[in-house]
Design brief:
Number of strands: 0
Largest sheet: none
Number of helices: 4
Low-confidence stretches: none
Strand content: under 5%
Structural class: mainly alpha
Order of helices and strands: HHHH
Shape: extended
Radius of gyration: 18 Å
Length: 83
């Protein structure tokens, strides 16, 4: 069964589930992949590091439609649809 969003629309992005247990070694590997130092980790929580990993993964995605400047302002002011 494919991953579904809350509104039950099938997601286009492939979701992979990892059955590996998260541990300190894996966390430190992920920190090294992000180029974080021990000093950086003093100011970050684990959640922040995982958010950074998620954002890095999102940066690699190709989005077919990009919003034009001002389109959200127009949308929320009742000016029409985004797409």
């Amino acid at each position: 069964m494919g991953h579904e969003q809350p509104d039950h629309i099938p997601a286009k992005k492939k979701v992979t589930f990892i059955d590996r247990e998260n541990n300190g070694a894996i966390f430190m590997l992920r920190c090294a992949e992000l180029g974080l130092s021990r000093e950086d980790l003093d100011d970050l929580t684990m959640g922040m590091v995982y958010d950074m990993l998620t954002e890095r993964a999102n940066d690699r995605e190709k989005y077919p439609v990009k919003a034009a400047p001002g389109s959200l302002k127009s949308f929320f002011s009742g000016g029409g649809k985004l797409a």
